[in-house]
User: Fold this.
Amino acid sequence: MHIRESGGGLVQPGGSLRLSCTAYGFTFNDYGITWYRQAPGKELELVASTTASGTRTDYEDSVKGRFAISRDNAGNTVTLQMNSMNPDDTAVYSCEAAQVGGPVYWGQGTQVIVSS
Assistant:
């Protein structure tokens, strides 16, 4: 059982990327999902999160209005749509799946570079 991120890459400032977090060997339905990022030399930062039901989402202030988290429980996938990107968004992005009182899964991360 594990989760894996995909969709990272190089994008120009102002561009968009769509990251995916997919579960293998278990279902996402009962898990809250959080996207984190860590830039070189900086601490781990929470970017966006969604509850298991998907009824609540939260965002770090610098990404509000630019990033959107959504979940497709049938597809066992949570996506992070990133728009109007800037160099400060450059980081390794990782997702975490957590169940209240249950296990926590982490992916290995996907690199995002915003540069011209």
